Amino acid sequence: MIIANWKANGNLSSNLAWHKEFVEIFIDNNFSDIGIAPSNIHFTQLQELFKNLNLKIGLQDIDFNGGARTGSISPSMASDAGCDFTLIGHSERRDLFKEDNTVIKAKIHAAINHQINPILCIGESEECSKAGKTRDFLKNQLITALSEIDVKDQVVIAYEPIWAIGSGNTPTPKDINSIHEFIKDVVQSSSANNTEPKVLYGGSVNNKNAEEFFNEKSIDGALVGGASLSANQFADIVKIYRKVKIK
Questions:
Q1: Looking at the domain covering 2-227, what would its CATH class be?
Q2: Which amino acids are annotated catalytic?
Q3: What separation, in Å, do the N-terminal and C-terminal C-alpha atoms of the chain show?
Q4: Distance CA 118, CA 126 (A)
Q5: pLDDT at position 165, please?
Q6: Which of 117, 118, 233, 235 is most buried, taking the most CB atoms under 10 A from its CB?
Q7: Are 62 and 75 in contact (CB under 8 A)?
Q8: What is the number of H-type helices and E-type strands within the chain?
């Protein structure tokens, strides 16, 4: 699957233009392997634009509860609005909003309980990577967030090394593939039902490097940030994914 994370970008007119350009590129209307996470304020606009297609519209985050939590979107509100998936634990949420693994686990539980597919984002800092502690760090993130959770097909992991997001720097495809294999092993051994998850890669993915990533066996798709703001470039990434992964 290829997911666009638009972050705090977009407006009503630019979203209309993005939709028009993107749909014109894919005449066959096959959107089942594509997801878009727009800003919360544009969620219903994107739903309406793609209502006759099978493209998935998700949220960039949900809270684990409702009620007296000003500014939050509760899991029941998201479910009622028809949210297909939600990103949980993105590094920007962990850093800017100080979300820890306990909060992230509660959000995953809440999403699953409300039939929303959670995409758990994990990733290490540059310092952690240089110190050779990446695997220990990721293992802790995974086990803390997913232990005792019945991980089924709806739970997806997105590996985004923090130092690669928006920087133009990425690990080698083989290094990413090795990390993805490690992630699958950790989740399979620590989850309640020993399921091997799909693992997406994120971190400066674009239409120039996507094919190298998708050629690796354990890279199951991508979570695309900046490049997804261009309908043309995002469409290129989807085409590359389909050429390599869907045979």
A1: alpha beta
A2: 90, 160
A3: 14
A4: 26
A5: 84
A6: 118
A7: yes
A8: 10, 8
Spans of all domains in the chain: 2-227
How does pLDDT run across 10-46, given as a tens digit for each residue? 999 999 999 999 999 987 778 999 999 999 999 999 9
What is the C-alpha to C-alpha distance for residues 201 and 220, in angstroms, rounded to an integer?
8
Q: Give 157-206 pLDDT, tens digit per residue.
A: 999 999 888 777 888 999 999 999 999 999 988 777 778 899 999 989 99
Q: Give DSSP secondary structure letters for 180-207.
A: HHHHHHHHHHHSTT-PPPEEEEESS--T
> What band does 151 get if pLDDT is binned at 50, 70 and 90?
confident
Are the C-beta atoms of residues 228 and 188 closer than 8 Å to each other? no
Compute the distance between CA of residue 208 and CA of residue 222 in angstroms, rounded to an integer.
Answer: 14
Global confidence as pTM: 0.94
Q: Which of 57, 84, 70, 167 is nearest to 123 (CA)?
A: 167
Q: What secondary structure does DSSP assign to 7-37, as a single string?
A: -S---HHHHHHHHHHHHHH-TT---TTEEEE
List, in sequence order, every beta strand (DSSP E) within the chain: 2-5, 34-37, 56-57, 85-88, 117-122, 156-159, 198-202, 222-224
Q: What are phi and psi of 158, to 5 degrees?
A: -120, 115
Beta-carbon neighbour count of residue 27 at 10 Å?
A: 7
Residue 224 token pair: 């695309």
